[in-house]
Design brief:
The protein has helices at residues 2-15, 25-54, 57-80, 86-116, 121-131. By secondary structure, it is mainly alpha-helical. It has a single domain (1-136), classed as Four Helix Bundle (Hemerythrin (Met), subunit A) (Up-down Bundle), CATH 1.20.120.550. Helix 1 packs antiparallel against helix 2 (25-54). It is elongated and about 65 Å long. The chain starts with a helix and ends in a 7-residue tail after the last helix.
């Protein structure tokens, strides 16, 4: 909602009309940042749900909240200069990678249970709970 509101505000500020695509460079930056965030959102939701369902809910929820804050940092950084958005982008990639690895670990655990009868769920949850605070390191 914040991103869409910024796009609408910038459109009205630049053109006086609602959502005119042609505008100043500031409108283009806001619009592009909004589109980038919108395109990354389905991937985030997929890995968040997979990590939460297949591995561990608490670290996945923590990583999800961190991702939302990072996308906010990316968006605000993109409004200034594009180089200011780079830390938010890289931080977001690291969180998506963490969620993806949690999903892979959950899938591997499922197949280990299915084929060999070995359950490593407690070990995986312990490891992900220990690693998730490391996401706070920029």
């Amino acid at each position: 909602a914040f991103f869409a509101n910024k796009v609408e505000h910038e459109s009205r500020h630049c053109n006086g009309k609602v959502l005119q695509r042609q505008g100043s460079s500031s409108f283009d930056r806001v619009y592009t940042a909004n589109q980038n965030c919108g395109h990354a959102y389905p991937t985030f939701l997929a890995v968040l749900w997979c990590a939460g369902l297949l591995c561990s809910q608490a670290p996945a929820a923590f990583a999800g909240l961190m991702y939302l804050f990072v996308r906010q940092k990316y968006f605000v950084g993109y409004l200034g200069e594009r180089t200011q958005s780079t830390p938010g982008y890289l931080f977001g990639k690291r969180i998506i990678l963490f969620l993806f690895l949690m999903s892979v670990a959950g899938i591997l655990n499922y197949y280990l249970i299915f084929f060999f009868g070995s359950d490593f769920e407690i070990h995986i949850k312990t490891i992900t709970s220990a690693i998730s605070p490391l996401l706070l390191i920029p």
